[in-house]
Design goal:
Blueprint lengths: L5 H4 L9 H23 L7 H22 L1 H27 L1
Helix pairs in contact: 2-3, 2-4, 3-4
């Protein structure tokens, strides 16, 4: 016995990266880079700025992983945003070392 359901024969196009995902990528990258900059400025006392930035990046990576586990559709955007944020941190930290 065969059933003819329209949802089985429907063909969908791939959605690609939506504007919401681009906003999420850029926003999360700015949060990662901005937080690292703030924590690098606070580096005094027991923890150096380098250790604070490392702790901040580990926290942000953990949040991106939690986003993937909870909402896989937006979690990929969080991982991409984390990657771009880390690249910003490395680029601007390298620029400060040159001075």
């Amino acid at each position: 016995m065969s059933h003819n359901h329209s949802w089985r024969t429907m063909v969908t196009k791939p959605t690609g990266i939506r504007p919401l995902h681009w906003g999420l990528i850029v926003g999360y990258a700015l949060i990662v880079a901005g937080g690292a900059k703030v924590f690098s400025l606070l580096g005094s006392g027991m923890m150096t700025g380098f250790a604070l930035v490392g702790a901040w990046l580990m926290l942000m990576l953990g949040l991106a992983y939690a986003g993937v586990r909870l909402r896989p559709s937006t979690g990929g955007a969080l991982f991409a945003g984390f990657g771009f944020g880390v690249l910003l941190v490395v680029f601007f930290a390298g620029m400060q070392m040159v001075r």
